[in-house]
Amino acid sequence: MADPLDENSSRMLREVGAKQNRILRARNEKDTFWSALGVLGVVGWSVVLPTLLGVALGIFLGRHWPARVSWTLTLLFVGLVLGCFNAWIHLRINGGDRK
User: Fold this and answer.
1) Which of 50, 73, 86, 87 is the most exposed place for a label (fewest CB within 10 A)?
2) Measuring CA to CA, which residue among 96, 93, 59 is closest to residue 76?
3) CA distances (Å), 96 to each of 22, 53, 59, 73, 90, in order?
4) Residue 51 in contact with residue 86, Cβ under 8 Å?
5) Phi, psi (5° rounding) for residue 31?
6) 69 three-class SS
7) What span, in angstroms and rounded, lies between the C-alpha atoms of 7 and 18?
8) What are the tens digits of pLDDT across the range 75-93?
């Protein structure tokens, strides 16, 4: 009679081996047009989203607490700087291991 523990162990080893092979193949594949387009989209949204949130918050603050300096322009600039920093970090983390 076969030991169920040995069957589970061998099944788990096959599954882990298959996943490891998929990871290694993915690392060795060349970048395609679609992967580059995906990175461009992620980087674009990482800049656009904080900028738009800054503008929205600036409009809200400008309506409720008027000031000599425009809240909208100030927070647009802050959102743009934060978005560019976010994109830079994203590219450093995800693009640093490519040769």
Assistant:
1) 73
2) 59
3) 21, 29, 38, 34, 10
4) no
5) -70, 135
6) coil
7) 17
8) 999 999 999 999 999 888 8
DSSP 8-state code for residue 5: H
pLDDT in tens, 45-60: 999 999 999 999 999 9
Q: What tokens appear for 84 in the block?
A: 């560019």
Most confident of 7-16, 17-26, 70-79: 70-79
Paired tokens of 50: 């904080």
| Sequence spans of domains, the chain | 1-30, 33-99
Task: Return d(Cα 50, Cα 86) in angstroms, integer.
Answer: 9
**Are the C-beta atoms of 86 and 48 separated by less than 8 Å?**
no
Whether 96 has a pLDDT exceeding 70, the answer reads no
The model's pTM is 0.63
How does DSSP classify residue 66? -
For Cα atoms 5, 8, 12, give the angle at the middle one, nearest 5 degrees: 140
